[in-house]
Amino acid sequence: MLETGKKYSVSELANKLEVTPRMVKIYKEELEKCGIYIDTIKGRYGGYIYYHKPYNFEVRFDYLDVDAIESILNKLNEEERNKISITLEKLRSIVIYSADEKRNIIIDEKDLNDKYLIISKAIEKNQKLNFVYHEKIRNFIPYSFTYYKEFIYITGYSIDEDDIKTLNLSKIENLKIV
Hints:
Shape: globular
Strand content: 15-25%
Number of helices: 5
Number of strands: 7
Oligomer: single chain
Strand order of the largest sheet: 6-5-4-3-7
């Protein structure tokens, strides 16, 4: 609805989506976590509006930087590694959003479709997933899909890292519902 460029009040959106105004605000927050920013107009005639404007986040690091941090991480003691690994995951998410379109990632459409169906089922039934991502085994509770350019991302709760993560679906390997 917001892609039309029309301004909607929170109550209008809540009525159209058949949710509470609080849920509309939660949806807005979730979209912003995924890099989709919705402008808020304050005041009596305020509301939410979305402009299809390209955002340039000026990311000044890339996969090589993430790999360098990861190799340093392997040389640290366990306590230092735990502190920095969370930061590394957040950095990796930012790099994924900014750099995936620049890389020549080969996407196997059938594999992607199979993963999508498995994750959709897990979201619907609130099930845990287990998979390998960047050579690391993950236990994950998926919440939603995000689409950015031609890539599909999965956002959810990483049980092992006790944090919210957004991961590129095409890089998930050995996916299974636990």
